Amino acid sequence: MTQVIYDSTFEGWLTAVFEIYELKFEDVVFAKSEVSNTLLFSERYFVTTDFQKAKRVLKGLKEKLSSQGFANIYKAFLSDIDKIDETLFQYVKYIFSSTVNIEDDLSNAAVLAISKAAYLTGKESHRMKAFVRFKLTKDNLYYAMVEPDCDVLPLIEKHFKHRYADQRWLIYDTKRKYGIYYDLENTTSVQLEFNANSTSSKFLAEISDDNEEFFQNLWRQFFKSVNIESRKNTKLHLQHMPKRYWKNLTEKIPDLNR
Amino acid sequence: MVHERVMEKLAILADAAKYDVSCSSSNSTRKNKDKGLGDASGNGICHAYTEDGRCVSLLKILLTNHCIFDCAYCVSRKSNDIKRAAFTVQEVVDLTIGFYRRNYIEGLFLSSGIFDNPDYTMERLVRIVKKLRLEENFNGYIHLKAIPGASAELLKEAGLYADRLSVNVEMPTEQSLKLLAPDKNHIDVIKPMEYLKNEIVGYKEEKKLNYKAPLFVPAGQSTQMVIGATKENDLEILGMANYFYEKMNMRRVYYSGYVPISYDNRLPAIGTPVPVIRENRLYQADWLIRFYGFNVNEIVGFDQPNLDLDIDPKLGWALRNLEKFPVDINTADLELILRIPGIGVSGAKKIVAARKFKRLQPEDLQKLGIAYSRSKYFLAFASPFQLQRDLTSIQIKDHILNTQNSKYKNDFSNQLSLF
């Protein structure tokens, strides 16, 4: 058994796939470089990410799949589901072993698992398009914190760039510790340093635009006013707005000053 | 903005607007223009869900709840003793932009009580959309109410800036409208609908010839009927809906279960539960007509003018038409698979795609996420499932009701306890 260790990026994983085929490894398990769980009985093989090799794998997959099936591979990878890299490898092996497009063969376990993982990421990226709540700072930056289960920022970047073309914005994934920043021209990936002070409510109040708190309260008021009490349906409410998202949703955070 | 006053207005005018159930923000084609603000070209997005489980997609408010009409079913009726308020044009613009930039909403849903006269009201609404589009370069979604009785010129202008226009028919029949809203006629509602339909078709034709032609109500028209305030049956309601879909090119018909808000003895008393199950069944029937290839006559008829409350209309149809089953999902056409209870549109498509690779067995269906416990009574497989064929429709119904945990179980507890 060979433990194939890659740098946890999509390109790194694609390079790994290329080299597994190239070196004819029989039995493989994947590991990400920051994870150091050593398997006792295995050889270790370190992958150096190679964009040319990654591209060639992508090209091969593109020829075998529909455009949606092709996009689903990246989406499934971003799902961050445990061992998705291995399931994806099973899936890729099936794709290359078949002469026809197998992406709809949902009675196959790997195909079904990838379709579900891609669905999950797709669903959450749609949710994040909805649940981002920008706050305005004094220097005209709209910023938002998110904490999605899947790594969805690469999938929602374009949506926000098109929609908020005339305002500077930052969406930061607090779980993965990176964000995307739009400077009115381009979007870039950014990493931020936080200290204990920068998340305190006093600090946040200081950097906020003068009208920011007012708008947050208006939004809370609106959210309350459009509810019809006699139709209360908590189950449905929670199904659509699961509690794990609440900490970044203005309308679900009570205003402490009122 | 004067903060406290605006906050109070928002509370009053959002509360008054909430009985209009439409909150869709999809189906438009408006793109971001000249690096301005917003777009409305994708799928709709629900930014939040209220505690009653409804989607919040748009800033849904009334411009004012002052109204010259006295429609019994409406909270804003003239004779109702409530707080009245009115936004200024600038306040609505500022709220919309402020909410939109923070990603709270997809856009604006603006309605209004009728103050003074229809044209005067409509003119104000148009002024707001124009300001948003022309001065703020706002390309987000705008749903505007077309005020019955407003002039054609104003409707046309509204259509050039809004993504969707709607005129609410409110009551499914003329008699009910006469009973509850003596100042209104069905014709006042049908006329603007017809006008808009023709304009929409005209602009669409023009757009085909000249891609630079302006958009006109790109997300189409919708309307709403209040359910359960008056005595119409589902045949009348769905018949009316079908008329709107076929004759008015309506994109959506909304059904709003009446929330008792008045002591008027023409209406259900305060405290009467909102008919949420019936409303749900009507939406299911509406979906069957729009997406499943059902004809309205197959769902309700003179012999059965109301939908079953304890089972969904698709199951109801299947039980009345058992001779059409069992269906072999490995060979049947998509249209027929769509008619099997427990299989939805995406499930049916998955089946048709997956069966190219192998003959599908019951366990495959479960993997695909099909509600097998419900559909099994209608499927033809090799034994032992063939046995199910001999059940009568009453037996199948009992089986399904007993094994499934309906969200409405409490409402039917007396029936379930019989078994």
Automatic annotation (TrEMBL), chain A:
Residues 84-251 form the DUF4130 domain. InterPro entries: DNA_repair_put (IPR023875), DUF4130 (IPR025404). It comes from Flavobacterium defluvii. It comes from the Bacteria. This is Probable DNA metabolism protein. It holds the Pfam family DUF4130.
From TrEMBL, chain B:
Pfam families: HHH_3, Radical_SAM. Gene3D superfamilies: Aldolase class I, Photosystem II 12 kDa extrinsic protein. Its cofactor is [4Fe-4S] cluster. It comes from the Bacteria. One of its GO terms (molecular function) is iron-sulfur cluster binding. Residues 62-198 form the Radical SAM core domain. Keywords: Iron, Iron-sulfur, Metal-binding, S-adenosyl-L-methionine. PANTHER family: ENDONUCLEASE/EXONUCLEASE/PHOSPHATASE FAMILY DOMAIN-CONTAINING PROTEIN 1, TYPE II SECRETION SYSTEM PROTEIN K. This is Putative DNA modification/repair radical SAM protein.
